[in-house]
Structure formats: C-alpha cells, structure tokens
Amino acid sequence: MQLEVRRLQTLEDQQRAFELRRRVFVEEQGVSEAEEYDGLDGACHHVLVLADGRPTGTGRWRPQPDEPGVARLERIAVLAELRGNGVGTLVTREMMRWAREEGYTQAYLHAQEHALGFYAKLGFVAEGERFMDANIPHFSMRASLQSA
C-alpha cells in the first residue's frame, strides 16, 4: 500500500477530507453534521493521507484559543478498514511537524477515550478529567513539539 501525506491546498482535496470526516464522524460515530462542520475549517490547516490514491486519513490544526504557542489538533479521522496501518500516525505527526515549523511549541487535543494509548505513543499526556463531547468520552491531552 502506497501512502501519501498532503497538506491541503486545493478545493478538491478539502472536499475529499470533508467526505472522509463525514463517513467517520457522522455516519460511523453518530456525530451531528452541525457539530462536525463547526465553521472553523477556514481558520485551520488541513492534512490528508491517501492510500493508493484513495483518501484514508485526515486532520486539522489551528492556534489554541487563549494559549500562544499551542496548536490544537482536531478532526483526526481514519477509515475503519485502514485503522492500525499507520495512517493516523502519519496524519498526527504531519500536523505536529507543520505546527512546529510555524513556531508552535506544544500540541493540544481532545482524544476519544479509546484512543488514549494511540496518542500516548506519539508523546501526548492526558490532563484533567474525562468529559463528554458529541456523546463520546474524551480526555484533553498535550505534547511538546520540540522533538516532534
């Protein structure tokens, strides 16, 4: 399987990333479209992973409100049939690398509870209490970008 990581720059790639998010979050996980498409995409940097030319993973990042130097990673999604093949790692590492290149020193995200171990392997540490977002249990997590 040939994997390609892209920083989104074309409308076509953005539409492919949005469709992937719809499949994962709206169809698979039952998140409402209003929650998924929150109006913040225009302020975000987007990443798309293609497997043999097919969109398989995506994510976005943006400045963390009220925390200079912190990039917030969001909407990390991988097609169910390709999870466990490194696609999520590619998406997350590319967003971390990009944020570091832009001068950010930390990454912050809200991880679904089942994904805590995945993010821990990438250097993220859980903070605070478990909370619900879109009826899914989450934890806040943070990582240094100095070695990302």
Strand order of the largest sheet: 1-2-3-4-5-7-6
Q: Indicate the overall shape.
A: globular
* Sheet having the most strands: 7 strands, mixed
The mean pLDDT is 93
Question: What CATH architecture label applies?
Answer: 3-Layer(aba) Sandwich
Could you tell me the strand content as a percent range?
Answer: 35-45%
The low-confidence runs, each spanning 5 or more residues with pLDDT under 50, are none
Count up the helices: 4
Span between N and C termini?
A: 25 Å
- Helix vs. strand class: alpha+beta
Number of strands: 7
What's the CATH superfamily, by name?
A: Gcn5-related N-acetyltransferase (GNAT)
Topology:
Blueprint: E1 3-7, H1 11-28, H2 33-36, E2 45-51, E3 54-63, E4 70-78, H3 87-101, E5 106-112, H4 116-121, E6 125-133, E7 136-144
Parallel strand pairs: 4-5
Antiparallel strand pairs: 1-2, 2-3, 3-4, 5-7, 6-7
Description:
The chain starts with a strand and ends with a strand. The protein is α+β, with helices and mostly antiparallel strands and 148 residues long. Strands 1-2-3-4-5-7-6 form a seven-stranded mixed sheet, with helices on both faces. A hairpin with a 2-residue loop joins β6 and β7 (136-144). The model has no long low-confidence stretch (mean pLDDT 93). The chain has a single domain (3-144), classed as Aminopeptidase (3-Layer(aba) Sandwich). The protein has four helices and seven strands, in the order βααβββαβαββ.
Give the structure's gist in a few sentences:
The chain is of the alpha+beta class and 148 residues long. 29% of the residues lie in helices and 38% in strands. A seven-stranded mixed β-sheet has the order 1-2-3-4-5-7-6, sandwiched between helices.
